[in-house]
């Protein structure tokens, strides 16, 4: 179960190993937003060399967007080296054809695709995008989405976008990561926002600093009370022989059992 993904700039190779040792479930070396245009070529070569030689199996990269001047070189270099990766993050995915083209260009060895949805067009096409066989992960990019549609950064402005991505991800068994929380000095805000995302159905989050990982994991972990409640629900259901049961005067049906078993699976993992 993947709960966290830590970004690290592709032009800061001295941070690669530190990121891999941060405790994040996945690490993503960034060749897009974190790297200035004049540093793209050097960063690409450095990142591909690191990924081709590392023993870490939870680290990969974000390539540049398909409409950028750097995309073809990113894909060509990655395909040539063909490192075995847990995913390749594709930013600014706006339609299924974006995924189809990358799928054709990269050998299967390079791993599944993580589709970053961060535009209005990407959101309205998210079901087609996430239904592609090679998409195993998705991420909501709230900052770019806000810039695209003109909304503010406040949580309520992004409930619809998150909810639609939750439904699409669940329908196609894709792990959805919430957008990074950009204030690294506000752990309370990070925890609150992560709990809100979890309540909405998002059970993983990206981070931009190693200090955020522990907070994310804590916010996504079920509490002792939640685990105890889930255990009682499952026990009551099993005691009823699979029939409809009552617990504390409330009816227990299949959806409640499914949710309880999910909580127990989180606790176990």
Please give a structural write-up.
- The protein has 269 residues and is α/β, with parallel strands linked by helices.
- The protein has 2 domains: 4-220, TIM Barrel (Alpha-Beta Barrel); 224-268, no CATH class.
- 46% of the residues lie in helices and 15% in strands.
- The strands form 2 sheets. An 8-stranded parallel β-sheet has the order 7-6-5-4-3-2-1-8.
- Helix 3 (71-81) links the parallel strand 3 and strand 4 (88-90).
- The relative contact order is 0.11.
Report the C-alpha radius of gyration, rounded.
20 Å
- Overall pLDDT level: 94
Which word captures the global form?
A: globular
- Please tally the β strands and state the result: 10
Second CATH tier, the architecture of the largest domain:
Alpha-Beta Barrel
Distance between termini? 7 Å
Count the domains.
2
The spatial strand order of the largest sheet comes to 7-6-5-4-3-2-1-8
Short description:
The chain has 269 residues and is an alpha/beta fold. The chain has helices spanning 16-20, 40-53, 71-81, 96-105, 120-124, 126-130, 142-149, 159-171, 187-200, 213-220, 224-239, 254-268, and strands at 4-9, 26-30, 59-62, 88-90, 113-117, 135-140, 175-177, 205-207, 245-247, 250-252.
